[in-house]
Amino acid sequence: MPKLILRYIGAIDAMNRAIGRMAMYLIFVLIGVLLWSSASKVFMAPSMWTLETAQFVMVAYFVLGGPYSIQLGSNVRMDLFYGEWSPRTKAWVDAITVFFLIFYLGVLLYGGLVSTAYSLGYFGDEPFRFFLDLVGTFVTQGPSAAGEMLGFLERSPTAWRPWLWPIKTLLCLGVLLMILQASAEFFRDIGRLRGVID
């Protein structure tokens, strides 16, 4: 197996391990938000921002921890037969089924990018072109010129009305990290089949 692929596996694993280990502490943020929500309802006026903030923190916890979960093999599996198979058979099956996961994540990423572009005020049919133009303008002309490209920023329909683009951007980042981790798992399974990786 080429050293470049082994370095890729190591780099993706290290990145997703670091992000996943940081993301796991978001559970304490979630607990704090929900505790504040409960206390504010009992002792004072209820806070409008707590429910949606809890949802946003849970999304961040889930999508940023997902790649680390794939890396550890702790994601949900149908273990009826899989648990009894040899490591080589597991590697064969994983090397094939990972393409279904990558396809699903690719569709999810495309939908997330379309939704993120919409939340930034782009209502056209080419979200990739929009993001390329936005980044190009930001790099060449600065943040103010890039800000002029944005349209009406989407807000939540709740009373708090937060902008939705930050959480949608985070969702896209998490799905991209899952795609990278799934591809690293594919290369790892090929390495196991060749006897290069344990």
From TrEMBL:
It is found in: Cell inner membrane. Residues 31-115 form the Tripartite ATP-independent periplasmic transporters DctQ component domain. The chain crosses the membrane at residues 54-70, 91-113, 163-184. The keyword Transcription regulation does not apply. Signal peptide: none annotated. It is a multi-pass membrane protein. Its main location: membrane. Keywords: Cell inner membrane, Cell membrane, Membrane, Transmembrane, Transmembrane helix, Transport. PANTHER family: 2,3-DIKETO-L-GULONATE TRAP TRANSPORTER SMALL PERMEASE PROTEIN YIAM (PTHR35011), SLL1102 PROTEIN (PTHR35011:SF4). The complex comprises the extracytoplasmic solute receptor protein and the two transmembrane proteins. Belongs to the TRAP transporter small permease family. Part of the tripartite ATP-independent periplasmic (TRAP) transport system. This is TRAP transporter small permease protein. It comes from Halomonas pelophila.
